[in-house]
Amino acid sequence: xxxxxxxxxxGVNISTRVDKVGLRPRIAGMTRAIIxxxxxxxxxxxxxxxxxTAFKTRPEAVAVPPTFFPQEWSLEGFVSLMTDRRQLTxxxxxxxxxxxxxxxxxxxALLRGQVIIGTSQFPTQILNSLIIAGASTFFSVFFGLLAxxxxxxxxxxxxxxxxxxxxxxxxxxxxxxxxxxxxxxREVGLHxxxxxxxxxxxxxxLSFSVWLxxxxxxxxxxxxxxxxxxxxxxRLQAFRKIVLPQAITGIAATTVFALIFSxxxxxxxxMLTSDTARTAPPSIPIRLGTGGIExxxxxxxxxxxxxxxxxxTFALRxxxxxxxxxxxxxxx
Amino acid sequence: MSNIxxxxxxxxxxxxxxxxxxxLSVKDQEFFVLLGPTGAxxxxxxxxxxxxxxxxxxxxxxxxATVDTLQPADRDTxxxxxxYSLYPNMTVYxxxxxxxRSPLRRLPEATIRQRVTSAAEKLRISHLLERxxxxxxxxxxxxxxxxxxxxxxxxxxxxxxxLSNLDAKLRESLRVELKHLQxxxxxxxxxxxxxxxxALTMADRIAVLNEGRIAQIGTPHDIYDxxxxxxxxxxxxxxxINLLPATRLGTHLGVDKSPLDxxxxxxxxxxxxxxxxxxxxxxxxxxxxxxxxxxxxxxxxVETILHITAGEQTLVSVVPGVAxxxxxxxxxxxxxxxxxxxxxxxxxxx
Amino acid sequence: xxxxxxxxxxxxxxxxxAVKPLNLTIKDGEFVVLLGPSGCxxxxxxxxxxxxxxxxxxxxxxxxxxxxxxxxxxxxxxxxxxxxxLYSHMSARENIAFPLQAQGEKRDQITARVREVSQMLxxxxxxxARPSSLSGGDQQRVALARAxxxxxxxxxxxxxLGALDAEFRESMRAEIKQLHLRQxxxxxxxxxxxxxAMAMGDRxxIMSNAVVQQVGTPQDVYHNPxxxxxxxxxxxxxxxxxxxxxxxxxxxxxxxAQMNIPYGWNxxxxxxxxxxxxxxxxxxxEAVRVKDDGExxxxxxxxxxxxxxxxxxxxxxNGTIVHGRVGRDANxxxxxAMRFDIAPDMIRFFHPKTEAAIQADxxxx
Lengths: 332, 350, 365
Fold this sequence. Notes:
Largest sheet of chain A: 2 strands, antiparallel
Oligomer: heterotrimer
CATH topology of the largest domain in chain B: Rossmann fold
Structural class of chain A: mainly alpha
């Protein structure tokens, strides 16, 4: 019988003699916090660099010695990212400089001797990323949940083998199968389609999703559903009313992981899409302008790319902390 | 009317046989207890009755009609689990109402409210109705679990060790309450436990299970006074019964390696057998027939347990009140002859 | 072997007390039981003695040595856990030898010592087995052997019988007590089961809600509980407690019964009770005497067989349930009206507000 006799965490590890009682735990706590902050800052420096570079001018972005904070704040990178421009002749430059009715975006373009001729592909690509990553995350979590529940609760014939097979997919590096899938997709006409990409990402995420969710569902005692069954509920109703609310943490964690995979996926996106369904990752690094690689634009693109995932993760943060460790540790 | 009949139920889990042709019948309004050690098959039996497990052989019948093909929802049973039966995100009221809100029943809210409040009153948890179940104590949680079964007004209550996870004191008080509730409600109940005190105090009849087979079925008095074999004899009664190997010596049965002997009773007696003496049937008397030494005393306040060595055998006896016996001291005692038990070497009652 | 001294030992989590300031002296070789319901502070106290939990205030002395801030490994104690805590990847022998190996003992000394303790606990035939293949009782014996092997100054046991089946608990209880009689080791034993505490303890420390309720021998706490909590907690079932009103010479009980005040209590009751005369009358089940002309009227609530005796549950006029111990052949139908007396020398009185026991006048037991 496991009776809870004290609402405590494991005791402080005492290794030295101390006279004062109250001081030690507090110092330990502060030291830990300071170390954590230092590590966090070090980890975040590359990200901060990237975000700050997005607001630098083109020359400053590649300046040597490099500057951390922009000396001159500019939206050049964003403009370059979001628009298509053409180079102006010297005469046109003089003409345009004289005008006073230029929108701010054109003014920025003019600084480099360019005029905006339209919106770039980037907004469409971000939209594609949102659609494809969002849909594939949803489907992989949805089907993953149903499969995980079945594996957890039912006596599926060949269950162990099936589970291992599903796990083994995780061992497969995506790059290995890009060529075969490319050929298949082209034959079937799925090349460069939203549906094709969603199908692909869902399949890859499914294995991870089933494994993670099964761990969470295993932790939910069977007795809850059995009580509902005996009381007159169908299994589906028991699943909806009882298992689902308790599995929210696991679902949140799985969603975030699946989303991050789909969102960042590069190899397949590069090979299997061109114009219609191209997502952001393949397009961000290739920003060639007249003056060479547009680093500020790349930084701006990365920054824009970062935001949706940060928002989702932040929204689910409370579920995540519990979710990341919970499903993995088996109670003995 | 709610009679439950099990006819040669067999259940296998991969390699192990959990239930081996188990047959029993429970009468209407009876409090029937399945008693046995962990792994004996009691929970499996209960789950087969509920329909949560499908048996490999045999039939389950309610009131004469087989229910083998019925889903758990259609059998009209209520199941109280050992733990994890309350939904943590809901209040006590919602937990109690949950069974009644199932689509199978479609009861109007007014009826639901009436049944919930009446059950809460019976179990003295009316003051907890608005609380979230996560903030209840262990005893309160089990009351709510039982309440959830009561609101269903089922044909039979199936309870799987509902008191096992509670503190000893809580178990004592809930035991008495449960028994009183069952008797005044007149509900047929099948109760699983490994605690023999629970079985003796609560049951109208007990079925003792051992490794998937029935060892004996009878009233508490039957089980205690006339155990069918050594397994049952050792299972019920604290302190445990003394089982002493004995040999037939002429007109007496002599306990091996000790000066104890008793006259041979009526009926067949083999050469070698096991003599069973319950601790309370060892009477310490100053003019007792036998002598022994006190090896250990366990003072329990209301009575004292004495471990007495006679020869090379140790007997456990229990005497009322405070016993002023000194460790190593000598005592005289008698064995209550009319209350002795005799078993052959396979453990069967003679 | 050693004495253990707890001086004003206290444990707080934030603002709430898990253990309020506690003073206790455990003599060399004594078997002391910390008894109480879940959450009362007994395990926290044990863990503070062992060093697995830091004290918030106070000092712990082991044989006069201040060990309050020492690491558990420096305190020379052995801990036995409820769930055995055996290393599942090692054999029983390796488990038992582990503490000695950790201390750097010589191999032949370790072998000899392991054989010695396994003989003591009768587990020599199990030494090569893995813990997972052993029964609960045997696993606990291995855990006990592992604790014994170091000959520590004190043994600390945290509900070691809690995870065992009922039949093992009885025999292991006697075994542990016999082990203690032979070894005379200072032992602190935590349990929520008052039967264990009574059977095994030289003294029992009863705790509830972070506070010590009473410290005494099993006889003390059984026959003279110091307050209502102890009266209820000790004994199965606990003491019957009914409300009465004290009038000169007798006590009025529910249902109109008038109970004569036993010899030696009058002055004490007169002195201790306030104007309204309310008092709590306590008596153990074995004090109930069913008689046709008994003083107190009741009806049968339930009646059950306990084996060698039966327990009769009686409902008084005001709804209180009283338990009485009767012969095993008694058979009382529910609802039957009957009467009983209380054996005069077994009556106790408690103050209804302070819940403390009222002491009898000098001379009465």
